[in-house]
Design goal:
Helix 6 packs across helix 7. A hairpin with a 5-residue loop joins strand 1 and strand 2. Helix content is 57%, strand content 3%. By secondary structure, it is mainly alpha-helical.
């Protein structure tokens, strides 16, 4: 049973998790009668089936013991979410992370129009952020229309994203974003000049 499929049978039957067998039977009979398909006043077939399944699970000691493990894990994760949601400092870096991601994609497209995209894991590595967290921020940037998924599977900044970066003057850490120009190359000076605009977007971040 996954977290998305989990049904709190105790809540469904309006029971305390420590309810004894007698209480479970009494409440089950009451609710089953109330929502039975033959009840012309309060029939609810879907609710009735859930109640029957809840009774089957909680009335069998062995099945109930296994369910209680999942039940406890489910609520531990829920309380963890509630704790994080109430922590005012938990989201302090989220906006900064999104700004850094968008700036990465800005510089990548500006320097290489033939290959303007970057991979999700590549960006997570460059920003030293967990991939699952980066996935959340990329979802936001895509929903805003600031980045797009290319045919290659990589993500690239859009024109709207460029506007957002230039308006906000966002900054990120370089972290090996692009190779340095070869000093022996004849275009090294010109490359350095064109890179100056990018460097205005970059600032060394603590790792």
């Amino acid at each position: 049973m996954s977290g998305n499929e989990f049904v709190d049978y105790y809540e469904l039957l309006q029971l305390h998790p420590n309810a004894d067998a007698e209480t479970i039977e009494r409440i089950f009979r009451h609710l089953a009668k109330k929502f039975h398909p033959d009840n012309t006043q309060s029939a609810d077939t879907s609710r009735f089936q859930q109640i029957v399944e809840a009774h089957r699970t909680l009335s069998d000691p062995e099945i109930r013991a296994g369910y209680d493990v999942v039940y406890q894990d489910y609520w531990n994760r829920k309380w963890g979410l509630a704790s994080e949601a109430s922590d005012r400092t938990a989201f302090g870096d989220d906006q900064i992370t999104r700004e850094r991601l968008l700036s990465l994609l800005y510089v990548q497209r500006r320097r290489n129009m033939d290959s303007p995209g970057m991979g999700d894991l590549e960006m997570a590595h460059l920003l030293h952020s967990p991939p699952e967290l980066v996935e959340f921020h990329l979802w936001y940037l895509k929903a805003k229309g600031w980045v797009e998924r290319l045919e290659t599977g990589h993500l690239a900044i859009t024109a709207s994203g460029v506007d957002q970066v230039e308006q906000s003057r966002l900054r990120i850490s370089p972290d090996h974003l692009i190779e340095a120009p070869d000093p022996a190359s004849g275009d090294a000076v010109e490359r350095e000049r064109t890179d100056d605009g990018d460097r205005n977007l970059l600032v060394q971040c603590e790792t």
